[in-house]
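Chapter summary example: a protein plus magnesium ion.
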Amino acid sequence: MSAIELNNVYFSYVLSETDIIKAVRGISLSIEEGSFVAIVGHNGSGKSTLAKLFNGLLVPDYGTVKVFGMDTKDAKNVFDVRKSVGMVFQNPDNQMVASIIEDDIAFGPENLGVEREEIIRRVDWALEKVGMLEHKKGTPFKLSGGQKQRLAIAGIIAMKPKVIVFDESTAMLDPQGRAEVMKVAHELNKEGMTVICITHYMEEALGADRLIVLNDGKIALDGTPKDVFSQYDKLKENRLQVPLATQVAIALDEAGIKVGTNIMEKDELVDKLCQLL
Ligand code: ADP
Ligand code: MG
């Protein structure tokens, strides 16, 4: 079953009569329930607009977005759509609302009208999932960037969405923080949550089931990461780079060391090199 389905979706930001930015231009797409989908694309390619179309923060000018069959344009679906698709944004500091961590996590479910006992259970459950349970009584302000983003994730999953969208949620983090967030994303996916990960780190797309490349509001490439990263000329056209291990493999190939260019991970490259030595 598809979690989110877009049919020929268009969206423009209308700034004035003459200044219209066509951010999404004819996207059709079906995201399978339980999948891990990465979306990449240069700045301004429409990723964040697409993310907001996924959870009804924006509705299409033309075409339809359906979330578990619910048309996001239909006013009666707004609440259920928002509840089904949670979003984690880029800046961890903008996503905290309370000065005590457990209150911060309780805020979302409280707004959904979840009963007290259940909220208490969910706060512990969500903090446990992101490895932050021991910080429950603490304050979010002293945490590292990675910890703050894990807290943001806990706040979202406490609302029990079926889909979680990360919109460049690792962009402001150091490598350790990025790894922490990606680990949580994959764990949630293993437990059945549909994950959509918008990123500009190609390495983060490697573990996805599917990789979609956006360019100027359209889908430029769509396939497994291996499929997409093997089309490096097309990626270049889309102003994107292949993962570092692939770049090295291509450079080695050009220098006559034939490790094969369809390599994505560092370990894979090391293995191939060792076989040649
Ligand atoms: P990305 O997330 O890939 O960087 P966006 O979806 O944010 O892309 O932006 C797509 C296009 O829409 C860009 O040209 C951007 O400048 C424009 N845009 C995004 N948000 C707004 C907004 N709130 N008002 C006007 N234009 C916007
Ligand atoms: Mg963006």
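Key point: The mean pLDDT is 94.
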